[in-house]
Amino acid sequence: MVSMRFIPDPFTLALLFVLVLGAVLPASGGFADGLGTVADIAIGLVFFLHGARLQRQVVIAGIRHWRLHAFILATTFLVFPVAGLLLTGVLPSSVAPALVTGLVFMCLLPSTVQSSIAFTSVAGGNVVVAVCAATASNLLGMFLTPFAVGLILHTSGTGLSLNTLGPILFQLLLPFIAGQVLQPWVGDFVRKQKKLLSFVDRGAILLVVYLAFSGAVVAGLWGQLSIGSLAILILACFILLAAILAFTTFGSRLLGFSREDEIAIVFCGSMKSLVSGIPIANVLFAGPDLGFILLPVMLFHQIQLISSALIARRYAAQRVPAKT
Predict the structure, then answer these.
(1) Above pLDDT 90, what percent of the chain?
(2) Is residue 74 part of a domain?
(3) Angle, to 10 degrees, between the axis of helix 290-317 and the axis of helix 227-254?
(4) pLDDT tens for residues 233-292?
(5) Domain ranges, residue 262
(6) Residue 150 within a domain
(7) DSSP letter string, 208-272
């Protein structure tokens, strides 16, 4: 008889389903735009509910958790790029230079926001510091990533428009602030709706995964590479992710962070933002190589989502129920 512990949970099965669905029936055109709007609303709802659930003193404590934020930012903008440069130095010469550039570029990107926070929530981690850390990573990444790209890759660009701050402000920060403002009146009700929070978190993740995988399929990027180059690129992404996961996990334990903080560090420190990566690449790079430059972050995005779902499931299974 097959042990029940080897049977995936419904969320993992749903994640695999949307990956297959994105490959067989990718969203495109008006349907993709409409679904993207739904995903944006779902993400905004995630942040509103988290803002409404979190008590004010807990949020203030999260902002003041400077050691955790420093560790995550150092991992994102220092450790990750160094690991990427070391890895690209040993890649075979058969890998196209544009792919190598794309791999380094991916390592210089900020963390995801919605995915890292949603996975932190699913795993039972410190959502408050995850919100603060992921948002800070993206705000700093608007300036640090182009600077680092110019410094390391010698790429000239016109700089990033402040208009790119709009999605962060209106989709993430404002719903969270609105939830915080209404928290004294709706906080108790929202905190009792654990199933609703779980449904919104996981639903947002599934929508993001489906749209991201659909975009790669519609763009036709998977047919532009040889199997050998694609295999090397995928292996490089796995190596990078494994190295950073090990660094964040054991580093957080070595520094004495709590289990909840460790979860936030693992997800916020190991993930790279496809949403930020595409507009940044459009500004910094030009020409036919742009698709290849974006391919590493697109691949890494899929790998990190699948891996994070499995890691979040394991953390959640190890969670100790609160005493009543």
Answers:
(1) 27
(2) yes
(3) 40
(4) 999 999 999 999 999 999 999 999 999 999 999 999 999 987 677 767 766 775 657 767
(5) 28-315
(6) yes
(7) HHHHHHHHHHHHTGGGSS-HHHHHHHHHHHHHHHHHHHHHHHHHHHHTT--HHHHHHHHHHHH--
